[in-house]
Design goal:
Blueprint: H1 3-19, H2 28-46, H3 54-79, H4 83-106
Helix pairs in contact: 1-3, 1-4, 2-3, 3-4
Length: 141
């Protein structure tokens, strides 16, 4: 998916998440606190000192931007019960992780070890372990 599509998807996700009725089982203040923290981390990490290398500077700003999208999507997974929002958030996480990997590879950086995508609230069951655990997905809740 192109960057414009990702931006549109993130905007849609944020709009739908905020439009979800407050009668949800988790109060929206928990989501907003996590979202605000994610945005603050993203903005701080994007504030780089230019190196003069356009490619590296671009990557240095885009990686935290994409990580911010991942963090926002994880927050909505923790708090939303809307199956459409949850599905969009899961797609955003996967796509943004792929784009971060592509950015790193484009400037010759190595990739960090893979890790599973968090999809459950902190109070949910412990993550699966063993072969294929990273490929385990949880149904919409």
């Amino acid at each position: 998916m192109d960057r414009r599509g990702n931006a549109l998807r993130l905007t849609l996700l944020a709009t739908l998440a905020l439009a979800t009725p407050l009668a949800a089982s988790t109060p929206s203040d928990g989501f907003m606190a996590e979202n605000d923290a994610a945005m603050a981390r993203m903005h701080a990490a994007m504030n780089i000192r230019p190196t003069g290398d356009v490619d590296r500077d671009f990557v240095a700003m885009m990686i935290p931007h994409h990580q911010g999208g991942i963090d926002m999507a994880v927050a909505v997974l923790r708090h939303s019960r809307n199956p459409q929002i949850r599905r969009l958030a899961q797609e955003i996480i996967v796509e943004q992780q792929q784009e971060i990997a592509a950015l790193r590879l484009a400037v010759g950086d190595s990739l960090p070890p893979s890790r599973p995508v968090p999809t459950l609230p902190p109070s949910g069951p412990a993550p699966a372990s063993g072969p294929g655990a990273a490929n385990h997905t949880h149904g919409d809740q």
